[in-house]
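[Discussion] Sanity-checking designs against the backbone

I'm trying to build intuition for which residues belong where. Below is a structure token string of 310 positions. I'd appreciate it if someone posts a full sequence so I can compare it with mine line by line.
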């Protein structure tokens, strides 16, 4: 009998920035308690999963030739996790990543690929599995993976994996400054611990005003409230970021912040047209590798142009 091979499934998945990232003290398990407001942006990766006799991962675009294609790739770990969950050992799956999200850029690109792979594989295998069940698997792969499934704007607590959606009425417009080289997330947390031992750098306050500004939809109000406890550590490891942050505001942005553990800087703009102008001006300032314009919030991982994902 002829085996029917299902057609490949492609999933688009957003990047994230943190509008607010409060880092608590180091916990006994080595993680920090976080309170963060995630915001999903239209800078995306596209992930295609297909049945194949040559299982593995291939990477194109951002991180091509750098991102591991073996068992360490988060997308491959997602294949294995879902396969184990549904009792399909040795999955014959090939995953192609078309990456627009910068690697080690503080925008959760690897987590996005893992989330997209879960959604894509669930569709390819026609699994009866809801997004909440996928989120349980996602949380074991990494603290940023569940958010990439849901997208939107959400408050994350714990390690960032406990999510509550936040009302965000209007689109916000952003310019992203991508750096030449990534920063490793663990090294940025270690640097924050070191700075806190050496002195007591100021900590950002509660997330409540940010949540209120999001509900109002006023970018000027939100601009005053962007905050990230990891920013001082990222700047300490990459002092040039100070110049990048200043250049974005000089170019006309309302405010700038380091995204997550950096080094990508996100600049909030007064509208879509303003974002295009800020991007053009920032691109000419010579402070970053490249710039991107994006808006948020956008939905989480979704099958492109086909059947509905779970
Ligand atoms: P976060 O914001 O969640 O801390 P990040 O955006 O700073 O993450 P990633 O792009 O997710 O960082 O990559 C971190 C490291 O993970 C990379 O240096 C890379 O070697 C490894 N990695 C594994 N799988 C992937 C993937 N699919 N895409 C990108 N990096 C991956």
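Best answer:
Here's mine. Compare freely.
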């Amino acid at each position: 009998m002829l085996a029917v091979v299902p057609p490949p499934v492609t999933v688009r998945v957003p990047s994230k920035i943190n509008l607010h990232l409060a880092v608590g003290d180091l916990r006994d398990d080595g993680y920090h308690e976080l309170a963060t407001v995630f915001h999903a942006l239209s800078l995306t990766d596209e992930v295609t999963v297909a049945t194949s006799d040559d299982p593995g991962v291939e990477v194109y675009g951002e991180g091509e030739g750098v991102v591991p294609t073996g068992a360490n790739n988060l997308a491959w770990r997602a294949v294995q996790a879902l396969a184990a969950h549904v009792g399909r050992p040795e999955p014959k799956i090939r995953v192609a990543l078309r990456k627009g999200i910068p690697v080690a850029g503080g925008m959760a690109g690897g987590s996005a690929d893992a989330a997209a792979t879960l959604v894509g594989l669930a569709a390819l295998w026609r699994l009866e599995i809801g997004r909440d069940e996928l989120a349980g698997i996602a949380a074991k792969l990494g603290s940023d993976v569940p958010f990439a499934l849901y997208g939107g704007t959400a408050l994350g607590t714990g390690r960032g994996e406990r999510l509550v959606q936040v009302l965000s009425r209007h689109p916000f417009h952003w310019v992203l400054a991508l750096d030449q080289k990534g920063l490793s997330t663990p090294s940025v947390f270690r640097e924050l611990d070191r700075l806190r031992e050496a002195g007591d750098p100021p900590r950002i306050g509660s997330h409540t005003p940010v949540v209120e500004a999001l509900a109002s939809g006023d970018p000027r109000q939100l601009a005053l409230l962007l905050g990230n406890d990891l920013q001082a550590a990222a700047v300490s490891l990459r002092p040039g970021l100070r110049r990048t942050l200043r250049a974005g505001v000089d170019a006309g942005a309302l405010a700038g912040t380091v995204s997550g553990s950096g080094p990508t800087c996100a600049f909030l703009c007064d509208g879509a047209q303003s974002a295009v102008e800020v991007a053009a001006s920032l691109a000419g300032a010579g402070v970053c590798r490249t710039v991107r314009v994006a808006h948020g919030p956008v939905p989480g991982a979704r099958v492109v142009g086909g059947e509905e994902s779970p």
